[in-house]
Each structure stands twice: as structure tokens, then as C-alpha cells.
Amino acid sequence: MTAGTFTPRPGAAPVSRMIAAQTALETRMLLRNGEQLLLTVVIPALLLVLFSSVDVVDTGAGRPVDFLAPGVLALAVMSTAFTGQAIATGFDRRYGVLKRLGASPLPRWALMAAKTLSVLVTEVLQIALLTAIAFGLGWSPQGGPLPVAALVLLGTAAFSGLGLLMAGTLKAEVTLAAANLVFLLLLVGGGVIVPLDKFPEGAQTVLGLLPISALSGGLRDVLQHGAGLPWGDLGVLAAWAVLGLGAAARLFRWE
Predict the structure, then answer these.
(1) CA 20 to 30 Å from 138, out of 25, 37, 202, 243?
(2) Which string of DSSP letters, residue by residue, matches 114-183?
(3) pLDDT tens digit sequence for 159-191
């Protein structure tokens, strides 16, 4: 028998393994949370089915699902990357979970990386489910996958930064109320269900600069009209990502 084969080797696991384990844990916790599932899966799916089947909102020429599907995909990204992450992280901070994890061998940047990867995994599941529902409703998407991926990644970065900024600076109860309120306001005024051209002309310019408007508008340009990379919308999302992540990195409080 080789000497030292069974000698204990205490120490932290490689960072990549710790991130993978924490990502799996964060994803399982999110998928087991009924409130989060309602927000991230049930509500977007119901909105897609309802407004595609009932002529409530004038979405212009063509089938309603062709307009609604890209907007609902954008809503799914926002619900997970912003609303869900803000609420979950805010209560993790309140109950001392972040403080304890911050004292573990897992680096704080790796914890944020794991939370971001968990968001991306959840979004993949959301997009797959919503796409299947939209196909069942007769959706015929145009465009290619690369512009869609670019929009989703930048949208995730923008909403994650804003969600972490809220969770790291406000009390958990305030975060809960504010995140849900922002979700509802952006659902109505972000071009998800109601086209922006239905709003007063002065408001359209302001609403068009919101991250949800840029994401839903960019996805609609690609998936409904077959456009290439929507540089304007990508620029808006990139600006929000830089501002949100930069502010979150500077102001986030772990306790």
C-alpha cells in the first residue's frame, strides 16, 4: 500500500467546483420556491396564452402571438434576473446567509458568479417552456439565435445589476415591495404587452430607454421582423448593465 494514500487532505475545494455546487444549490432553491415559480414561470406563461388567445390589446398587424412572444421572453428574463434575484438575495442578506457564506472558503465574487449562473440556468428553462407554448399558439419566429443570445445576456446583466443593487442596499421587506412594484410597472409600460406607440409621444422616448423596453423591442425586431443585431437596444442594455453592476459592486452591503 502506498504511504499516505489515506492521509486526510483538509482544505477548500477548487473555486470552479465551489461555484458549480453553489449554482446547483441556488437553482434548486429557486425551483422549489412556489412564489418564485409563480413569478418566473406561471405569470409569463398565462400572459402569453391569455393575450394571444383573446383580442384585448391591439398589437398591430399580424397575429398577436408574434408580437407577444418576444415581449414575454423579455418579461421572463426580468422576472428572474431582477425581481426574483432581488427578493431572494435581500432575504438571504436579512437572515445572515450572505454573511455566513462570505466567511466560508467560497469567495464573495464566486458567490455572485454562482447566483448569476443560477439565473442563466433558470432563464434557459423559462425560454424553452415559453417557446414551446408560443409554438403551440402558432408562433413563427424570424431572425437568428446570435442576436437573441446577445440581447438575453446583456439583459440579464442589466437586470442582475439592478436587482443586486436593490437587494444590497434596502431592507428585505422594502426590496420585496419595491421589486414587485417595479415588475408591475415595467410589465405595463415596457412594451411587453402594450406597444409603446400606444403611449403619449412624450412618454415614448422615456419608456424606450428602460431596460425592459430595449430588451422586448430588440427581441421583437429580431424574432418578429428578422432584423440583425439591434445595436441601439444593445447599447441601452449595455449602459444599464454597466451602471447597475458598477453601483451594486460599490454599494452592496453583505450584512
Answers:
(1) 37
(2) HHHHHHHHHHHHHHHHHHHHHHHTT----S-HHHHHHHHHHHHHHHHHHHHHHHHHS-HHHHHHHHHHHH
(3) 999 999 999 999 999 999 999 999 999 998 898
* Domain boundaries along the sequence of the chain: 15-52+59-251
Query: In this predicted model, what pLDDT tens digit does every residue of 30-53 receive, in sequence order?
Result: 878 777 778 788 889 999 999 888
Q: Which cell is 118 given?
A: 443560477
From the list 226, 224, 227, 228, the residue with the least C-alpha distance to 62 is: 224
Q: How high is the pLDDT of residue 4? A: 56
C-beta atoms surrounding 13 within 10 Å: 12
Q: How far apart are CA 193 and CA 44, in angstroms?
A: 11
Q: Which has the closest alpha carbon to 75: 102, 41, 100?
A: 41
Residue 1 has pLDDT above 70, yes or no: no
Q: How many whole angstroms separate alpha carbon 138 and alpha carbon 229?
A: 25
Name, in order, each residue with C-beta under 8 angstroms of 130's C-beta and a sequence gap of 6 or more: 44, 45, 48, 69, 72, 73, 76
Measured CA to CA, the distance from residue 177 to residue 63 in angstroms comes to 35
How many other CB atoms sit within 10 Å of the CB of residue 236? 23
